[in-house]
Hints:
By secondary structure, this protein is an alpha+beta fold. The protein has helices at residues 8-11, 15-18, 157-171, 191-201, 203-207, 236-239, 275-287, 313-325, 375-378, and strands at residues 2-5, 35-40, 49-56, 63-68, 80-83, 85-90, 102-109, 117-123, 133-136, 145-150, 177-180, 209-212, 219-220, 231-232, 257-261, 264-268, 293-297, 330-333, 339-347, 353-363, 387-392, 397-403, 407-414, 419-427, 434-438. The protein has a seven-stranded mixed β-sheet with strand order 12-11-10-22-23-24-25. Strands 15-16-17-18-20-19-21 form a seven-stranded mixed β-sheet, with helices on one face. Strand 17, helix 8 and strand 18 (330-333) form a beta-alpha-beta unit. It starts with a strand and ends in a 21-residue tail after the last strand.
Amino acid sequence: MKILFISAALLAGSILAHEGVHAMRHWEIPSPDPDRVFLTFSGDPATSRAVTWRTDQTVRKAYAEIAPAWGEPGFIHKAMRIEAETEVVELSRIINKDRDPVHYHSVVFQNLEPETLYAYRVGDGKDRWSEWIQFKTASDREKNFRFVYFGDAQNDVFSRWSRVIRMAHQTAPNAAFALHAGDLINHANADPEWAGWFKAGSYLHAQWTGVPVIGNHEYSPVGGASRANKTMSALWRPQFTLPVDESLPDSLKETVYSFDYQGARFIILNSCSENTVQTRFLEKELKKPGARWKIVSFHHPVFAPGGRTNYKPEDREAWLDLFAEYNVDLVLQGHDHSYLRGQVPALEKNGQPSNNFQTLYVVSVSGPKQYPTNKDFLKQYEPEHYKPVRRGENSQFFQVIEVDIDELIYEAYTATGELYDRAVIRKNHENGKKEIRQDFEDIESRTMQNTIEYSKKDL
């Protein structure tokens, strides 16, 4: 059993400033019953999954059970039981004296069969169990699939982000997983905010495999301090069991990782931390054979719609050069609290743009905090042949992306489920050449001027 002590220095300016004497809601209070159940990749998606959950301190030993999911109710008699690892998080030292420690439990399901539906539950091994929850393993072959991508949730999450994740599930109920591109909450160590994020997703977090990307609001303090003086949320690792690459320093583990899913390679980076080591990791993952599609996600945009960026010029250039060299197809980002889909062309040997499309860059936002785009700022990217294609302001979005053998279909929806943007990438895998078709011409652009007046005071 691990014990995690959260120091006052680490949380100063985060929990102290924003929790105070907090009137806790019933779903914030830990109990012997499992809550905050979250499913992740932690190994080959075709043969494994990881699950993490929270209880109060009375549950010192916890378990997960898993069985192939059949139509008969007696599937439970085929379940295998696995004892969980337990981590103690000492919140009481910071929040107030009446906050008891909480326990986070985790299990990695291994040696699963590809393309198989499983049911699992988590609990204390006695009477305090979750419901049975189903997920399907990936195929071990190239095969089409869909996934959902969310930009920043961050603010007023329980109240106004809940509708977004639920509409996303209604729109793409069979999506394989959900990618969250950073700033899941506003203050790194504010446990009530994390409670709201988990409540908003509810059982979807336990059913949809989640791919969390770390953002600047998962660090403390949020602004002002240098990267070296920022500390990652003490709740990130207890809450999410993620792939660990042993070549990375401890500070980057479970924030920088990759996985392959049915012919597509996903590379997750940490744009809040030191880039040199990550650049080596990025190139190593891009070099690996075996992926028809290459998709990269990190929080801070390299082409920022509102001008909010977080890169040293040489770090940004190193990543862009690798995206070009290895023909990355799609880059998914957040941070700027507006919507922008843009693209760059493949370059000829003389450095001039060709007629072939190369990489699609997306910035999106799913929560209620909104910023306008800055058209003048975007002009500075023209020498890099970046072309902004579709903008959106003052709107909550989610994206559904379908990956097929030779085609990638990208769609953006508003929180009400209305299609807002669509693009189709076709790829010749023999020579790597791609073309893109835009499908949004008949859909009106959403701007600060033609939508309900935005007020930051509502956050």
